[in-house]
Amino acid sequence: MTTNSHETKKPLLLQLAVCDSYAQGPDGKPTLYGLFNMINVGQVPTVHAELTLFMTFGYGKPGKYAVRFNIISPAGKTIIPSPVINFDLANDKAVHNINIRFQGFPLPEEGPYRASVFFTGEEIPVEDKVLFFVEKIKKG
């Protein structure tokens, strides 16, 4: 008897991206617009007009799951904690996309902004947790 390894696992975090906006096409596929990893600013602190965090979870045991995340400033402070987001996976090959749009996102300082992703109460190890960098434009 063979066992599908997905049937005993929690879903995997398959994608984590930051972009300007997200849309779902007529074919159901997600489209991310304006992917970025750097925000150039004239001064800090400042506010970024809009950004979208996109995540895909999947390939786990079918069932109900809950996820939340925090975006952490370079000084280690949580900028905006997310609410708990619930989703279902119908089978071991199912995936679920989550996109969260932020308007007026505060950027208190320069440096790397990171993500902590919590999945059903446990932090998910993400190989590279840096979402984006903020850099002050030097005049001259």
Describe it.
The chain is mainly β and 140 residues long. It has one domain (5-135): Immunoglobulin-like (Sandwich). It contains no helices and twelve strands. The protein has strands at residues 12-19, 21-24, 30-33, 38-41, 46-58, 63-72, 78-81, 85-89, 95-107, 111-119, 122-123, 130-136. Strands 4, 6, 7, 8, 10, 11 and 12 form a seven-stranded mixed beta sheet that branches. Strands 1-5-9 form a three-stranded antiparallel beta sheet, with no helix packed on it. Strands 2-3 form a two-stranded antiparallel sheet. The protein is globular, with a radius of gyration of 17 Å. The mean pLDDT is 88.
Q: Average pLDDT, to the nearest integer?
A: 88
Described by strand count, sense and barrel closure, the largest sheet is:
7 strands, mixed
**Overall geometry:** globular
Q: Write the CATH fold name.
A: Immunoglobulin-like
How many distinct folded domains? 1
Q: Report Rg.
A: 17 Å
Proportion of beta-strand residues = over 45%
CATH classification class = Mainly Beta
Spans of at least 5 consecutive residues with low confidence = none
Going by CATH, the architecture would be Sandwich
- Please report the total strand number as a whole number: 12
Order of helices and strands: EEEEEEEEEEEE
**What class do helices, strands and sheet pairing give?**
mainly beta
Terminal residue distance: 69 Å
In DSSP terms, counting alpha (H) and pi (I) runs of 4 or more, how many helices?
0
Q: What is the helix fraction of residues, given as a range?
A: under 10%
